[in-house]
Every structure is written in C-alpha cells, then in structure tokens.
Amino acid sequence: MPIVDRNSRYDMSSSHLQRKPRVKPPALRPGDPVGIVAPASNIKPAELDAGCVALQRAGYRAFYLDSILDQDIYFAGSVERRAQELEEMFVREDVRAIVCARGGYGANYLLAKLDLAKIQAHPKIFVGYSDITSLLTYFADAGGFVTFHGPMAAKDWTHENGVDFESWQAALSGAVPWDVALGREVSGLADGEAEGILYGGCLSILVASLGTSYEIKTRETILFLEDVAAKPYQIDRMLMQLKLAGKLEGVRGIIFGEMLDCAQTASQDYTLQEVVARIVGKLGVPVAYGLRSGHVTSGNITLPFGVQARLTVRGGQVGLRILEPAIQL
C-alpha cells in the first residue's frame, strides 16, 4: 500500500518523489478588493495609508480591519488578534487577495494558531516576504495552494518604483508562460538548465524552520533564497545548515535575491557571490544571483511559489520562465 505523507504533500510510493499539484487561487482583476493584514510586526498608520492609496491608484479597493494598528511589544497585537485577522480575510467573500502590510518578526507565532482547514477551504492570493516566508511556505506545503513572494502594503507600495508591476500583473492575472525580467544585475554562478517548482523566501526564516513541524520542503524545487543585512559569514553558515540538513539534496536549481546590505565591510576583498558559490556552485544544478524580490532597492518582483518554472544559466546569461499559471484561469 503506498505511503503518503499528507503534511509534505509528497507521494512516497515511488522512487521519484511526485509533488501533488497545488490549488490555485482566483485571479486578481482591476477593481477587486484587497485585504491588508499584519501577521508580524506592528505598523505605522502613515505607511499603511500610503500603501492603501498606492493600491487604489493601481486599480484595487484596499481595506483593513481597525485592529490592524494594535501593538503588543513589537508585534501587531496579540497572536490571537493576528490569527483571527488572517483567517477572516481568507473567509470573507468580499476579499479577492490578501497583501501583508510588512514583515519584521512574529508570523511564526501564527503557525500553531491558524485553522488551516478553514484557510484551505478558501484559497486566495496571499502576498508577502521577509518574516512572512514562514506563512508562504506553510500555506504552500501544508495548505497545498500557490502563494506569492512579493511587495507588501506598508513597505514597497509606499515607495515610488517600489513595485515591479509587470511581474505583479503576470503572476496575479494568470499569464503563461512568462519570463521574469531579471535585469543586468542578475549573474550566473553555475551553468545549467532545470525545471522545478519555484519555492523559497527569506533565507534566515527558511533555516529557522529546520527541526520544527513546519520544516521546509525543498526537493524538486527551483529554490529562491534572499535576505537582508546579513554578513557573508552568516549567509555561509545558513547555507551550510541547509546543506547539512539535506535541504539542498534534490534541489534542481538555485537563484539568490539581491542580498541587500549583505556585506562585512565596504572594503572586503571578496564578494558574496564567491562565498555562496563555494557551497552551492558544485551541486550540479544551475545557480544564479541577483533577482530583485523581497528585500530590494526598488522594483520588487512578484514570484509565484508552487508553480513549475525553468531556470537557465549560460555563461553570464540567466533566464527564469514561469511555465504555468499561478491562479485559476
């Protein structure tokens, strides 16, 4: 009788792990309502308002619950408030997509509090990054639906040129196939071509999942890794932890983010690319560096987690193509 690990959503009955297709949420269209949530750190009213105005200018109807401005130490209110807010946004029929206000810290508190069955019954577009990585991967793995690593309401949406609208539109409206506009800043670290499920997020949050009931599932993925203000040796340490934990086994490709402010000193005589290439450059998979998603200087790219993608690295040329729609067509 086949053995099925329902939490990981892998069929273990064959020698080749088969990932079950993830549920795709309904598309986001102009005029649709977008619910703003704060699952982690507390937020400033001015930044929240600026983000809502920007979303409305983009053609959506942004709204939030009054409790979003609650504060408990550095959290956006109690864990009960944050969990209830998130569940309500999933259940409400008048919400088409859910965009996190910001990251910071605290989303991991929600993992044991959320009613996952209730959320699974109402799959919706869910967007965020940084600390929100713990929810993106939880909903993708245990919840079984596509999630979106992209711009947040009280962060990127508040800045001019903070959002890459091309990828936002392509990911949330169901374009297929589409090429992520990587830009000249993206470089190749190891040549190759591979297809897999796009997945990942903030490196420090991914590593923090190891040894818990919410441990990340990286096999057969194009693994996206990004972080901010981490020194090169800390990036090295986290990558080695992933490697020693077996989380780089079965990965089909790796692409790093912009890695904003991830330097030891301005005068260091090595690059972060050299540091990460020592660990992942000889895995036999394509490796690239510099994708602007998550913590970025500008133009935050939206990446759909849970869909098939192709990573191609040839010399200095890098391509990332999304091969299937991320939402219901």
Automatic annotation (TrEMBL):
Q: By its UniProt entry, which InterPro entries does this protein fall under?
A: Carboxypeptidase_A_C_sf (IPR027461), Class_I_gatase-like (IPR029062), LdcA_N (IPR027478), Peptidase_S66_N (IPR040449), Peptidase_S66C (IPR040921), S66_fam (IPR003507)
* Keywords of the record: Carboxypeptidase, Hydrolase, Protease, Serine protease
Please name the catalytic residues of this protein.
130, 226, 295
Q: Which Pfam families match?
A: Peptidase_S66, Peptidase_S66C
* LD-carboxypeptidase C-terminal domain residues: 195-311
- What residues does the LD-carboxypeptidase N-terminal domain cover? 34-150
UniProt lists the family membership as follows: Belongs to the peptidase S66 family.
The record ties this protein, via PANTHER family, to:
MURAMOYLTETRAPEPTIDE CARBOXYPEPTIDASE, MUREIN TETRAPEPTIDE CARBOXYPEPTIDASE
| Protein name listed in UniProt | Peptidase U61, LD-carboxypeptidase A
